[in-house]
Amino acid sequence: MPVSVRKYDLVVLGATGYTGKLTAEHINEFLPDLVEKLKKLSPKRLPPSIEICVPMAENLNSLARKTRVIITLLGPYAKFGTPVMEACVKNGTHYLDTTGEIYWVGQMVRRFHEDAKAAGVILLSQIGAESGPYDLITFSAVSKLRTEASLKTKELIVSINESKLALSGGTLASFFNMYESIDQKTMTASLQPWALSPISGRKAPNAANTFGLRRDKTLGLLSASSPTERQDRALVHRSWALLDAGNLYGKNFFYNEYQKAGGVVGGVVAKIGTKLVGASLSSAILRNLIGKFSPAPGEGLDPKEEKNFNIEIFAVAVADEVGPSETRALSKLRYAGGTYHITAALLAQGAATILYESGLVERVGGGLLTPAVIGQPYIERLRGVGLSIDTVLL
């Protein structure tokens, strides 16, 4: 069935989980024109508890054939995501997820990108709090340098100023599954800077000092303690490659991500803490211990409390130019809500952009793409629901 005449515009899989409920709530609040069609899928449920459970391939194919866009929140994605993506590619259905399982994303790139490209199917993976905001703020800063100063970017420096995280049971289950199902060699390879990129960029030296600190003239004191730096970098570097084979951002582009440091001691402590968390997740004994005191899948912090969190991320695009001057663009991303609320917004508005942005599919083509490839229309939709990215030339 042609995508434009399918029965359903959008299906949300896993809508009774923690993130799924928030996504359904976001759709109910900001995309009311979709709500009636979602209700038809599960008429006995009241929104936002809209869920379709389709574990069998034949059911997935049947659903995909009559749906334009599928959002899946059924994780761990390494267990449940592959058949959903496969059904979408096979049946010409656009797809979004919020995985942080980067090794799985790499597998999906190798398995489905070319087929999706040929079919004109948009696949958006890893677009939630990890790594959607970082990809979009990079796109905004780099675009400002290019359009207003006619300059390419040699480095994108991110400072996470505020992003409080209280992990849900589903997120923890995905982390645990990741460490239990793959070996260290595979994990290390999947976290390399250009692991998701079809072409390799430059090798950049570590800009932080021995203690994991770096001082930037615009962003101040930074700590190399972001727990998702390598996952975010890999996705951003994929955007670099997909956008005119690196020419749009610049051939010397490289992405670095930090947390804002309140002081030298605090920055060092944050770096040590990140290392300890990674070590804990690598240990089966410690994972079991953490699991005993963690929320079950589908549960998490009270959403009303999580909504009171705030996210603030700054990014500087440093121009690739010769001479003593150093032109920069500064982007500021702000959102009133925590990481799960911003994830809901990114998923729902990503789907809406695919559904309603005229000519988008023809412009970007298909394949396993990134938020930056969708570009400014996505940013403008997010602005309309309170996720702002403001950029100036310095």
From TrEMBL:
Residues 57-123 form the Saccharopine dehydrogenase NADP binding domain. GO terms for cellular component: lipid droplet; mitochondrion; plasma membrane. This is Putative trans-acting enoyl reductase. Pfam families: Sacchrp_dh_NADP (PF03435). GO terms for biological process: glycolipid biosynthetic process. Transmembrane segments: none annotated. SUPFAM superfamilies: NAD(P)-binding Rossmann-fold domains. Belongs to the saccharopine dehydrogenase family. It comes from the Eukaryota.
